[in-house]
Design goal:
Number of helices: 22
Helix content: 55-70%
Radius of gyration: 37 Å
Largest sheet: 5 strands, antiparallel
Number of domains: 4
Number of strands: 10
Strand content: 5-15%
Structural class: alpha+beta
Length: 628
């Protein structure tokens, strides 16, 4: 459920606002109202945090590689308080050195073809009237220079003539600019810069152990930025001419935000004890900043790690679908992973993680992995899928405990693969009907008992269209003989549900107290109304991805097995084991991505569009002390 919130304003004397903010932060119940704020202190804090982030990223690049000994923390004399600046300075020096090495290396590659001459000698000759110019000419161009004072130094890899011209320029050709240093001098400079780069990099590696200290400083800066944002965002109660009439000692500032209704009592007690004024009221209907705080039982709360990772939050005035989301997501996960072997691995990994963290309290994410692993294992058992192994290789006990209509062991059950595939598609579409149908059943009861609106008939119409379209999909996609739709006509119950459902949606879909206006609005959006029927078809069809993606994952796993099979039993056995580990590991990673893309999508797009959920909410994050 979505926890009811109150819009709260705390009025304090301006001279006491920092003390008041500290106490409000200690309570940890108020979500700050979002504002665009600015202050010199805030700008300085943000700049400092940016430098800290830069320092952390620099040190991460010099983390010890696997197997390397962790260096001892470097002792830096006189720069302990300026450690971040010291690290950034070293990194900038390294970048400068790398640029210099690159430029000199490029310069060396351009001029070493003329040999190791000293440019200062050439400049001295030029000063005494002997002009020497460097050219790189094609053989054809060189042969045209009869009578000119040109000396060939060598031929490069392109078979061009590398020349030195004396006194006169070569018409139509452009001479190379004279280098600053000789080849030997350039090589020595490059070696010198590389040695300095190595020294700087070693110094940065020695500073890596300070990364924990710097990361802690970053967390402290985050807390200071949050505090300063709250302080700078406090408005003065009196402004303009009124402000001039009030003595500074009596100036009042206002802290505004949102608090859960159940926690307003904490604020009231604090206001009474500290002499603050508190105002709490219902948020305005057009207030789009109201944060969303969800409250569910321990089981449904297992979805929170996924929701936090995806940063999806229902709007404050929307519906909380955490329970239905989790239940169907478990089904989607099992069907997409579709392998009991994978499920067993997930269960094992989750159990080990939970046991290791039991004393501190196992993270919800591990508990969720355990739940999803169980769902995957159950589905794999029912379909007789174990690491995509051929059915004939599996023990009879695994075949017997599978569920014949959807089992991979169809040969042993006397069914056909086509029949199994049809049943799996039928199951996908049945899940679509149950999932989307739930949205409109819920909407029907909300419109009757909460809204008391005739829009409930539009929800019934949507439900009727779903059922009718479900039958159309079965006839078109699964098997027209097993699931005949029948001749189009009102005597056909499925056709009647489609037409009748569309009529109800057309009449009551825009109902706001007047049926005539609702019908007129539907005519005004006639194209959208027609597209609503096709959307129902596409939404149901979208659930076939559960079968298709699971089939793709199984095919990839089978391919890995087929490649590794011939290697087993001789000197390539070790290679076969590596191939199996890599192949199935890679397939599990792809399955995780598939679940995020497809399993989450069916909840956040198809289902949400039917339940009227836009995921436009702002997560409730109270102004509180953070764990550093």
């Amino acid at each position: 459920m979505i926890v009811p919130m109150k819009k709260v304003s705390v009025f304090v004397l301006d001279k006491q606002k920092e003390d008041a903010l500290n106490k409000i932060r200690d309570m940890g119940v108020v979500h700050i109202e979002r504002k665009t704020v600015a202050s010199a202190a805030l700008s300085d804090l943000i700049d400092r945090k940016g430098r800290v982030d830069t320092a952390v990223n620099i040190l991460k690049a010099f983390a010890p590689k696997r197997g390397e000994k962790h260096p001892d923390a470097a002792k830096i004399n006189g720069v302990n308080k300026e450690l971040v600046s010291f690290i950034i300075e070293k990194a900038e020096r390294r970048k400068t050195l790398l640029d210099e090495v690159f430029n000199n290396t490029r310069e060396l590659s351009r001029f070493d073809k003329w040999g190791n001459f000293k440019p200062e000698d050439v400049r001295e000759l030029n000063a005494n009237g002997v002009t020497l110019l460097l050219y790189e000419l094609s053989i054809a161009a060189y042969r045209k220079l009869e009578g000119q004072r040109v000396m060939v130094v060598n031929y490069d890899k392109k078979n061009n003539a590398v020349c030195v011209a004396a006194f006169d320029k070569i018409e139509g050709e452009y001479p190379y600019p004279m280098p600053e240093r000789s080849v030997d001098e350039t090589k020595a400079l490059i070696a010198e810069k590389r040695a300095e780069i190595t020294a700087v990099e070693n110094e940065l590696r020695s500073l890596y152990p300070h990364i924990a200290e710097i990361s802690s400083a970053k967390k402290r800066l985050d807390a200071e930025i949050e505090f300063e944002t709250a302080r700078a965002g406090m408005d003065k109660l009196f402004t303009g001419e009124e402000e001039k009439k009030i003595p500074p000692a009596y100036m009042i500032s206002v802290f505004a935000g949102y608090a859960p209704e159940a926690d307003v009592g904490i604020l009231k007690r604090a206001a009474s004890e500290n002499g603050w004024a508190l105002y709490a009221d219902e948020p305005a209907e057009d207030d789009d900043q109201v944060p969303t705080k969800l409250k569910n039982n321990k089981f449904f709360s297992l979805l929170y790690p996924l929701a936090d990772f995806l940063e999806i939050v229902p709007g404050y005035r929307e519906v909380d679908i955490t329970g239905i989301f989790l239940l169907f997501f478990c089904v989607f996960f099992g069907m997409i992973f579709s392998d009991a072997g994978y499920g067993a691995l997930l269960i094992l990994a989750a159990v080990i993680g939970i046991l290791k963290t039991a004393k501190k309290g196992a993270p919800q994410a591990l508990k969720m992995v355990l739940l999803l692993g169980i769902c995957n294992f159950v589905w794999g058992v029912l379909t007789c899928t174990w690491f995509a192994a051929p059915v004939e290789m599996l023990p009879d006990v695994l075949k017997k405990i599978s569920f014949a209509p959807i089992s991979q062991a169809y040969d042993a059950k006397g069914t056909s693969k086509l029949f199994v595939d049809q049943n799996l598609m039928l199951l996908c579409f049945s899940i679509a009907l149950a999932h989307l149908g739930f949205a409109h059943v819920r909407g029907f009861f909300v419109q009757i008992f909460k809204q008391k609106s005739l829009k409930c008939f539009a929800e019934l119409g949507q439900l009727a269209m779903l059922v009718g379209m479900f039958r159309v999909v079965l006839a078109l996609v699964v098997d027209a003989k097993r699931f005949p739709f029948g001749a189009v006509g009102f005597e056909n119950i499925w056709f009647s549900m489609l037409i009748g459902g569309f009529a109800l949606v057309f009449i009551f879909g825009n109902y706001e107290g007047n049926i005539i206006k609702s019908i007129i609005a539907s005519f005004a959006n006639f194209i959208s109304s027609i597209l609503g029927v096709t959307n129902v078809f596409s939404d149901i069809m979208s659930y076939i991805r559960l079968w298709a993606v699971g089939l793709a994952g199984g095919s990839l796993a089978s391919t890995v097995n087929a490649m590794a099979g011939p290697m087993v039993g001789h000197f390539l056995t070790f290679a076969a084991v590596l191939l199996l580990l890599f192949g199935h590991g890679f397939n599990m990673v792809l399955n995780v991505l598939s679940v995020i893309v497809h399993g989450v999508r069916l909840n956040t797009l198809e289902f949400s569009s039917h339940v009227g959920l836009t995921w436009s909410g702002v997560a409730y994050k109270p102004f509180a002390k953070r764990v550093l």
